[in-house]
TrEMBL record, chains A, B:
Record-level GO BP terms: carbohydrate metabolic process
InterPro entries: Gal_mutarotase_sf_dom, GH, Glyco_hydro_31_C, Glyco_hydro_31_TIM, Glyco_hydro_b, Sulfoquinovosidase_GH31, YihQ_TIM-like
Domain Glycosyl hydrolase family 31 C-terminal: 577-661
Organism: Aureimonas flava
Protein name: Alpha-glucosidase
Recorded GO MF terms: alpha-1,4-glucosidase activity; carbohydrate binding
SUPFAM superfamilies referenced in this protein's UniProt entry, alphabetically: (Trans)glycosidases, Galactose mutarotase-like, Glycosyl hydrolase domain
Length: 677, 677
C-alpha cells in the first residue's frame, strides 16, 4: 500500500490511501479510514439527563448512527459522506496539528471516532480519574459530577447511597473529567469540546471517542517519551501558578470549631506539628439543619462564630501561619449577597425567567452566572477580593463547580448542558482573577475538586474530592493516588487530599489506622492538609488521640524536611509542567511493568512512595522500576530495580525509596527517622 | 393527505402515502412511514452476553443504525433504502395479514421498528411479566432467563443477590418473555423471531421494537374488543390442553420429605384439607452440597428415599390422589442417564466437540440437545414416558428451560443464541409429546415456569417461578398476579404459583401471614399448589402451625367448592383460549380505569379477586369495574361498579366479589363462610 503525504502540520500528516486516508503523527497512525473500515460515524441522539444534587442519571437514545464510508480529499480537507454520490455530512481539515471538524448536516448531534488500538496498548488520562489509571478495557463517560459514595456497585455503602439519594456513583464518576488521553504508543489525543463525551477503551482494535456534538477539534500530540508528552499537554492547557513557599513549611490544619479552632491549633503545635496554615471552612458561620450543621453559604466572615477574626488572622500571620477559608459559587437565599446579586441580575434564571433556585437540603441557593461578565467580575472583586483576600485570607477551598444544573438559563444564551462541563473552569478563572487582582498569584492558595479542560491555567491546586473515611478500593485512600497521577498527566502539577477522607455515612467512621496511614501518604504529596470530614463529632480527629497526634506531628516534620526537594519540583512544574506526583512510567517509559501501577508513585524524579492503603497491612510489596537501584529510606537498604521489593511498613514508615543515584541523597538520609538498618 | 389502498390481507391494508406508506389494520394506523419520519432502521450490533447460572449480563454495541428513509412500493411489496438512489437494504411484503421481512443487506443484524403511539395508550403482554402489566413508559428486553431475586435494584435482597451471584434481576427479567403486545387501541402485534428483542414503550409518540436479527414477520391482529384479541392470539399461538378434572378436587400438596411426605399428607388431610395430589420433587433422591440438599438430577425414582414408591403411588391413586414428581432438561454426570445420553450423542457439545458441561454448584450436568430429534424422542419416551408416566406419575414440575448456554453447539447447527429463547418451547414439546404418547393429554399435568412464543400449544400450566417468600412489590405474592394476567393475554389460560413463595435467602423467611395470604389467593386460581421452598427447614410449612394448617384446609375447601365454576372456565379456555385469571379490562374494555390494575383480577367472568398482598393489611380497597354491581362474597353486601370498594379482609376472607348478574350466584353464595352481613 502506498501513501502520499498530502499535508503536514507540526508532526501531523494527512495521507491519502488508495481506499481512504490515514492521519499520521510522527509516523504513528492515529486514524485510518477506509470504505470498509470507516473511522467516523455521525448521527443523532436524544439524551435523558437528570440531576440529583450533583449526581446524574444519563441515558442516550441513539436514533441514528451512520458510518461515513465515503471520503473525498482535497489537499488537507476531507469531506465524508455515508456513500459515494451522497451529500457530505462532515468536513475535516488538518490545521495546526489538529483536525478541525465542521458539520455539514445540521441534524447531526453525535459523533463517534475510532482510533486504531494495539493489543498491548495502555491509555491514561480522562481528567482526574479516581478508580483507574490505566483506562484500557473500560468505558469512561466524561461529565463533571459528584464522584459518588463508595463508587462501587458491589459495596454496601454505594448501595445505601444510591437508595438514599442516587449518590453511590461508579468507577468513572469524577469532579474533573477531561477528554484527553495519552497512549503508550507515545502520543496524546485531546477532544476540544464542551459537550458530554465518552472514551471507550473496551475494544481490542480501536478506541472509540463519542461526542454529543460535532467537536471543534481533535488535537494530537506526540513526543519521544511520556515526560515530553506531559510537557506538551501542560503547555497546551496552561501552566499552573507556582505552589506558594509558605505552604511547604508544614501542614494546613483543617478545623471547623469556631473560635475553639485557634486553641486546638495551639495544642497541635505544642505536640510538635509543623503547621503552615489554619483552614476554617466554618469562617462563614453555620446553618443548622436536620442533617446536622452546614456552612452558611454567604461569603463573608461570621464574627459571631469567630469573634475578632480579622485581628486573629493578623496575629496568626505574625506567627508565620496563614488562615484559609471556604467559598463556593452558590449564594443562599437568606444571606446578604443573594439580594445584591439578584438585584443586579447576576444569578442564573429558570425557564420562566425567575431566579433559578437549587435545593441543597433545607436551604435554597442562587447560582452565580459566570457567563455574565459583570457577575464574574462582581464575584471576583466584591466577594473573593473584598470579603476574603482583603479580609486576610491566604487561601480557601473553592468548592463545587460540577453542579451547574442543566436546565438553567444563562446570560450568554449557551445551553446549560454545554456549559456544564466547562463550568469548573469558569469557576477557577473567577478565583484566579480575584487572586491576581490583589497581586497574590503564587501566594494565595485556593484548591478545587472540580475541573475540565483548561482548569490547569487557573487552579493552583487540586484536591481529590470527598473520599470515604476508609480503605476501600474505589473511594478510599488509594483513590487519592489515582487522582493525582491521572490529573498529573494532563498538566495538573499539584494534587492533594483530605487526610483521613471526608465522607462518613451509614456508620462508616475513621479508624486511627486510617488517619495515620493517610497522614503518612500526605507527607509525600505537594500539600499536607487535614479535614474534619462531614461528621466531625462522630469521627476521630488528628488531635483526638495522643498517638495519632504524635504520628501526625512527626509526618508534618517529614513533609517540612522535604521542602528543599519540593521547591525543585515546584520549579520543574513551573518550567516544564511536570506534576509533583508522577506515574512510575513517566520516568521509566521502557518498563511496561509500570504502566498500570496506581498504588505507588514517584514523588518527583527521585522518590518512590508506596503508601499502605489497605487495613491491617504492615508489610508493603511494591514494584521498583528497572534500570536503577533504590534505597529504602528508613533502613538504607538497597533494592534492585526491575523487581518487587517487600519492606516492613509499620506506622510512621511508609514504603518510600530514593533512587540510588539521586543528587538529594543527603536530604533524604536526613529525614526524621531515616537511617541505617 | 390522500391514501390509496394498495393491498389488503385480512384486516391489514398497505396504503400508499404521497411521502411514504401506512399500514392500516381495520382502519387503525399501525405503521406510518415518511422520508422525514421513517419507521424502520437497520444496522449492525456487536453484543456482549454473559451467563451466570441463568442470569444474563447483556450489552449491545451498536456500530450502525441507519434510518431507511426511502421507500419504493410495488403492489404489496416495499423496498427500503437509506436514501433515493441507494441500494435497498430491506424488503417488506404484506402477506396473510403479516409483514414479511427480507434482508437485502447481509451485514444487517439489527432492526428497529417504530409503531405510532397515542398519548393515553396502554400496552400489555411481553410474555409473562412479573412486575408490570401495563408496559407503557418502560423498556422490556425479551430474553428468557432467571427472573432474579428481589428484582428491584433498590432492595437489600436484590443487592445481596447481585453481589453473591449477579442474581438480583430487574423488573423485566422473566422466565417467559414473548415478543407480542396488545394495545388499548385494540390491536395486537407479534414479532416472529427467535432472536433477542426489546419492546421499548418509553416514547410518547411511538413504540420501538428492536430485534437482534431481521425478524421473519411482524404479525398484526385486530378485534372489536380485548376478549376477541385474546381469542385470536390463542388461535395463533396454540390452544392449551384442558386442565385435568382431578386437579379441581383440591390442592396439590408439595412435600419433599422422603417417605415422611406420605405421613405428613395424611395429617394434612386429617386437618380437613381437600387434596388432589401429592407432589414430591425429591422423588429422584437428594444430593448433599455445601448449599444444602439438592435434588439428584437423574430422572427416575429413588426407592432408597421413597421405599416401594411405585406401590405407594398406586395406593394413593386408589384413594383418589395423584402423585407428581420433578424433571428438568439436564442430566447430572454422576447419574445413570448421563452415560447413556452421552454415548448416544444426545448431549450438546462445547466448542472443542466435547460434551458441554454446565456447573450447577458442586455438580456438573450435560444439556440434552432437543434440536437432535433422536435426543428429544429418547427424553420423551425413555425418560419421561418410561421412568415417570409408566411408573405412575400424574404430573411434574418441568423445571428450567431458560438456561440454554449461549455457547453450546447444537445438533441442528443453529447458533445457541438463536435457540436460547425458543428452548423452553422445545422443552415443553418434549414433555407434551411424552404425555401424548401415553394418551394422557388433559390428564397428566406438568407445569413450567419458562416459555416463549408457542409454548401455549404444549404446556398445560404455567407456574409463576420462584417468588421470594415475602410481600415485596417486585418479587412477592403480588407478582404472581401480574404473571397470570400478562401471560393470560397471550393465550396461556392456566397459571398458578408456589403458595408461600420459594426463594428464602439472606434471612428472609416465610411468615404465617404470608403463607395464609398466599393460600387465600391460590384458592381463586386454576391450581392450588404448595411448595416447601428452597430452604424447607428454615421456613414455615403449611403443616407447621395449627392455625396456618386450619386456614389452608379451609381454603382448599373453597377451591374445591368452585370446581363447577372452574369447569366452565376450562371449557371456555378450550373453546376460546380465554384465561382463567383475567385482567379487569378484558370484560370492561370501555372502563379505562381498569387498564393498569394488576393487583386484582377477574377469576373467570363473574368473580373479582383482590388478594391482600401487603403485610399488615386487613382492609382491602379495590376498584370495581363500571356497568354492573358487585356482591361481596363474605357479607353479601352490594357494591356499585365504577368505584372503589373498601372491605374488611381478615384471614380467610380475601376481598372477593361476584357480579350481581351472575348465573352462578347459588354456587358463590354457597362458598364456605359466605353469607349475609
Amino acid at each position: 500500500m502506498t501513501r502520499h503525504p498530502a499535508a503536514s502540520h507540526g508532526a501531523a500528516v494527512l495521507a491519502h490511501e488508495p481506499d481512504g486516508f490515514s492521519l499520521l503523527v510522527a509516523g504513528k497512525r492515529v486514524l485510518r479510514h477506509a470504505a470498509d473500515a470507516p473511522c467516523l460515524f455521525v448521527g443523532r441522539g436524544e439524551e435523558r439527563m437528570e440531576m440529583y444534587r450533583g449526581n446524574f442519571d444519563i441515558e442516550d437514545y441513539v436514533v441514528e448512527r451512520v458510518a461515513l464510508r465515503h471520503a473525498s480529499m482535497t489537499g488537507e480537507t476531507v469531506e465524508l459522506a455515508a456513500g459515494p454520490g451522497e451529500a457530505p455530512r462532515l468536513r475535516l481539515r488538518l490545521e495546526g496539528g489538529a483536525l478541525r471538524f465542521e458539520a455539514l448536516d445540521p441534524c447531526v448531534n453525535r459523533l463517534w471516532l475510532r482510533v486504531p488500538a494495539e493489543p498491548d496498548e495502555h491509555v491514561w488520562g480522562g481528567g482526574e480519574q479516581m478508580s483507574y489509571l490505566d483506562l484500557r478495557g473500560r468505558r469512561f463517560p466524561l461529565w463533571t459530577s459528584e464522584p459518588g459514595v463508595g463508587r462501587d456497585k458491589t459495596s454496601e455503602i454505594t448501595f445505601r447511597a444510591d437508595v438514599a439519594g442516587r449518590a453511590g456513583g461508579d468507577y468513572y464518576h469524577t469532579n474533573y473529567p477531561q477528554p484527553t488521553f495519552l497512549s503508550s504508543r507515545r502520543y496524546a489525543l485531546h477532544v476540544e469540546t464542551d459537550a458530554y463525551s465518552v472514551f471507550d477503551f473496551r475494544h481490542p482494535d480501536f478506541h472509540e471517542i463519542e461526542v454529543w456534538a460535532v467537536p471543534e477539534r481533535i488535537e494530537l500530540f506526540e513526543a519521544a517519551d511520556f515526560l515530553g508528552l506531559v510537557e506538551t499537554l501542560s503547555a497546551r492547557f496552561g501552566r499552573q501558578p507556582p505552589l506558594p513557599d509558605w505552604v511547604m513549611g508544614g501542614a494546613i490544619v483543617g478545623l471547623k470549631d469556631g473560635a475553639r479552632s485557634f486553641e486546638r491549633l495551639g495544642a497541635i503545635r505544642e505536640a510538635g506539628a509543623k503547621v503552615s496554615g489554619l483552614w476554617c471552612e466554618d469562617w462563614v458561620g453555620l446553618r443548622h439543619t436536620s442533617f446536622g450543621a452546614r456552612l452558611f453559604w454567604d461569603w463573608r466572615a461570621d464574627e459571631t462564630r469567630y469573634p475578632g477574626l480579622r485581628q486573629r488572622i493578623a496575629e496568626l500571620s505574625e506567627e508565620g501561619t496563614r488562615f484559609l477559608g471556604y467559598v463556593n459559587p452558590y449564594l443562599c437565599v437568606d444571606g446578604s449577597l443573594y439580594p445584591e446579586a439578584e438585584a443586579a441580575g447576576y444569578l442564573a434564571r429558570d425557564g420562566r425567567g425567575a431566579t433559578a433556585l437549587v435545593d441543597f437540603g433545607e436551604f435554597d441557593c442562587g447560582v452565580v452566572d459566570f457567563t455574565n461578565p459583570a457577575a464574574a467580575d462582581w464575584f471576583a472583586e466584591a466577594v473573593i477580593g473584598r470579603n476574603m483576600l482583603d479580609y486576610g485570607l491566604s487561601g480557601w477551598m473553592a468548592d463545587f463547580g460540577e453542579y451547574l444544573p442543566i436546565d438553567v438559563h444563562l446570560a450568554s444564551g449557551v445551553d446549560a448542558k454545554l456549559m456544564h462541563n466547562p463550568w469548573p473552569v469558569l469557576w477557577a478563572e473567577v478565583n484566579a482573577r480575584a487572586v491576581r487582582s490583589r497581586g497574590r498569584t503564587g501566594d494565595a492558595l485556593f484548591f478545587m475538586r472540580a475541573g475540565f479542560t483548561g482548569v490547569q491555567a487557573h487552579c493552583p491546586l487540586l484536591w481529590g474530592g470527598d473520599q470515604s473515611v476508609d480503605f476501600s478500593r474505589h473511594d478510599g485512600l488509594v483513590t487519592a493516588i489515582c487522582g493525582a497521577l491521572s490529573s498529573g498527566l494532563l498538566g495538573n502539577a499539584y494534587h492533594h487530599s483530605d487526610i483521613g477522607g471526608y465522607t462518613s455515612l451509614f456508620g462508616n467512621v475513621r479508624t486511627p489506622e486510617l488517619l495515620m496511614r493517610w497522614a503518612e501518604m500526605a507527607a509525600f504529596t505537594p500539600v499536607m492538609r487535614t479535614h474534619e470530614g462531614n461528621r466531625p463529632a462522630e469521627n476521630l480527629q488528628i488531635d483526638g488521640d495522643p498517638e495519632v497526634l504524635a504520628h501526625f506531628a512527626r509526618m508534618t516534620r517529614i513533609y517540612a524536611h522535604l521542602a528543599p526537594y519540593l521547591r525543585t519540583l515546584r520549579d520543574e512544574a513551573a518550567a516544564r509542567g511536570l506534576p509533583v506526583q508522577r506515574a512510575l512510567f513517566l520516568h521509566f517509559p521502557d518498563d511496561a511493568r509500570t504502566f498500570a501501577i496506581q498504588d505507588s508513585y514517584l514523588f518527583g524524579p527521585d522518590l518512590l512512595v508506596a503508601p499502605v492503603w489497605q487495613a491491617g497491612e504492615s508489610v508493603r510489596r511494591a514494584y521498583l522500576p528497572q534500570g536503577v537501584d533504590w534505597v529504602h529510606v528508613w533502613t538504607g537498604r538497597l533494592h534492585p530495580g526491575g523487581a518487587e521489593a517487600c519492606v516492613e511498613a509499620p506506622f510512621g514508615r511508609p514504603a518510600v525509596f530514593f533512587r540510588a543515584d539521586t543528587a538529594q541523597r543527603e536530604l533524604f538520609e536526613g529525614l526524621p527517622g531515616a537511617g541505617g538498618v
